[in-house]
């Protein structure tokens, strides 16, 4: 295999890896895992990515975040000289694709329809994702005052720690596992109720994900 | 009425449509909208209940009567008008059209109205007129409806509260709220149900039936419903999981029963997205899987009776034959029609 060919393959593989770090903010799952990435192509360092969503009317704010996050994740990769991320088959494809390419932000892309950028929205869902990951890790937890360092390593713990760090919360081994999304320790007296609601958050996100996967499958893979 | 194993159920389908999404009544957004509906239909219906896209765009009145009442088991079905005139120039399904159909089939339908707070004073007069002409006891609101450059509204907006005040004054006690993917401003979560919390606190005499049980925000919905006794969940969109994702359905219904209780959940098919016949049959046959019963308990006959019809009958003051009632029926904490027509 020629050196040039190897380089192209490396870039494509790197792009897929980078896209795997981009999550649907609402579902808290990688867009690659959700099959939202329909194509990656590279030519002389120029990367083109096609994205697709479960419906024509998926919420435009989350769609914008995914397109923008995808572009950012790829832009810094070695060997990449240009990035084009295109969302297809969506009512706001034009606004989103142009907005992200121009890098002027959400409010400019939806002139007059938005009152700000999407940081606040992202944070709301980061908090939900954190709580859901916490509940997953804490299933069957006997002692509500357990510390992070006491919990054995597992994929669930890793996912939880990632979200905890993204929220800027204490991840030291002696910090309490049961900290709410503001970082406040949930005392033993409130732990049961806290985790009960966390379970509802998790189920809400999981059933939403099931819905989206089914709709995407129907839209693109098993057209009736 | 539906009967299975010697037990009978009074059935109210809380959310049905007779829509016109034909090619001559839609623009590209309307086309995307009905494609989206068709995706829901195709994704979660059993194969034998799948329609062609053409039929789905524009089915006949006979189809509807056949599906709901002849092969279906509904005693009553509630028309929920949805205008969407920015997508479907002649309206997706309007109160006038629904009222005509209802008049041709006496005692089959409840005709609900609709309002849009962005219509201002004019819309308030129209609401009064709809109440006078059709005797509406409920309205369907679609907060993501586009209107010119607007992409939606919230129930906590000043004008929305004025409309709700008018509903209270007129005795329109059932406010069906349907969230969608857009709202103003677009940078916020359009599916957020907190505005319903504000409205429900402000108007304890009105019932707020949140369609889809707040999905995709089941958690936020359950949270506000625990605090507002006049908030209910409509099962449209959630209940079709019963066929292809029964364990997810068990979790969703389990969560709803845990947080809201059995008196505040109402059955709905969202016809013609789904056919009520199979939904009713499968729901009556359904049980929480054994390994989840420790957490959620079981669905009893009374719970099923309440969800399938008795809860909606209470909201709309429908006469239910004595033998179809459930133990403790009517003991729920939702606002009664009387509560809303008291002194303003």
N-C termini distance of chain A: 42 Å
Text of the CATH class of the largest domain in chain A: Alpha Beta
* Spatial sequence of strands, sheet with the most strands of chain B: 6-7-8-9-10-11
What's the order of the H and E elements of chain A? HEEEEHEHHHHH
The helix content of chain A, as a percent range, equals 40-55%
> What is the rounded Rg of chain B?
19 Å
Q: How many domains, in number, for the residues of chain B?
A: 1
Contiguous runs where pLDDT drops below 50 for at least 5 residues of chain B: 331-344
CATH architecture of the largest domain in chain A: 2-Layer Sandwich
**Low-confidence segments of chain A, ≥5 residues, pLDDT <50?**
none
How many H/I helical runs of chain B?
14
Number of folding domains of chain A? 2
Total helices of chain A: the number is 7
Q: Which CATH class of chain B is shown?
A: Alpha Beta
Largest binding interface between chains: A-B, 43 and 43 residues
The main sheet of chain B comes to: 6 strands, parallel
**What composes the largest sheet of chain A?**
3 strands, mixed
Strand content of chain B: 5-15%
Give the overall average pLDDT of chain B. Answer: 94
The CATH architecture of chain B comes to Alpha-Beta Barrel
The residue fraction in helices of chain B comes out at 40-55%
